[in-house]
Amino acid sequence: MCRERITLSADLKTKIVPCQFGGNPDCGSCGCVASMGLAAVAAHQLGGIIPVGAIFKASVRIGQIGQAWSKRTAEQPAGEEGLRVLS
Question: Is pTM beyond 0.85 here?
Fold first, then answer.
């Protein structure tokens, strides 16, 4: 059992034991700290205005739109004649 960290609930009083993910945790290889760190980065505001998480979500959405556009244009036939070679 892991005794390296203590996880608290949202009220900051109730202990969650042995782990927030349950089971028999191996804290040395868990990665929950990385999840918390990424959440903190996403909540950080650039210039005190725009959350980093919003920029990431917008970037993902733009990528999805680009992929959909690529698939749409790739599925259109080139035409009956194909390409002609000019002499």
Answer: no
